[in-house]
Amino acid sequence: MTYKHEGWTLYTRDVKLKGGRNQTIYFFSKRSPKSGTTCDLPNGYAVGVNKRTGLPYLKKK
């Protein structure tokens, strides 16, 4: 199921870091990104909103 917050949709994708390690990143977007798939809110995380910009972000509980 797709997680949405005030018009923003949560996406995920796997990226390869310079050291060769793979890491999963989560990000919000109002439009469909070039890469990434929609996802649920990960366990242990809550959504916060930046007061200055209004952008949502994930934070650990």
Question: Could you explain how this protein is built, in words?
Answer:
The protein has 61 residues and is mainly β. The protein has one domain. Helices cover 0% and strands 51% of the residues. The chain contains no helices and six strands. The strands form two sheets. Strands 1, 2, 3 and 4 form a four-stranded antiparallel β-sheet that branches. It is globular and about 35 Å long. The two termini are 21 Å apart. The relative contact order is 0.28. The mean pLDDT is 96.
The general outline is: globular
Order of helices and strands: EEEEEE
The main sheet comes to: 4 strands, antiparallel
Number of extended strands: 6
- Which residue ranges are poorly predicted, with pLDDT under 50 across at least 5 consecutive positions? none
Terminal-residue CA separation: 21 Å
Structural class: mainly beta
Give average pLDDT, whole number: 96
Over the alpha carbons, how many angstroms does the gyration radius reach? 12 Å
The helix tally amounts to 0
Number of domains in the coordinates? 1
| Content of β-strand | over 45%
> Level of helix content?
under 10%
